[in-house]
Specification:
alpha+beta; 2 helices
Amino acid sequence: METTINSMVEVFKTNVHDPAEAKMFVGLLQKLITNSRVNFDLEDCDRILRIEGLDISTQLVTGILKDHGYQCQLLE
C-alpha cells in the first residue's frame, strides 16, 4: 500500500512582466521552497505565479517579490 503526500498549490497575482525577472524568481523560490514546482503565467492579465509544494510560506513568497519592488497577492 502506497502512502501519498498531498502537495499544496498557492496562486499569486503579481505585476512581474519581464521573463528574465520571472526566471530569476522561479530559481530563487525553488531553492527556498524545497521540492517545489514554480512557474509564472506572464500572458495572464494577473501575471500569475503558481507554486506547488509541501510547505509553502505565503509570507515568504510575497515578501521576496515585494523586497524586489513587485506587487504580490495571494489569490484565494
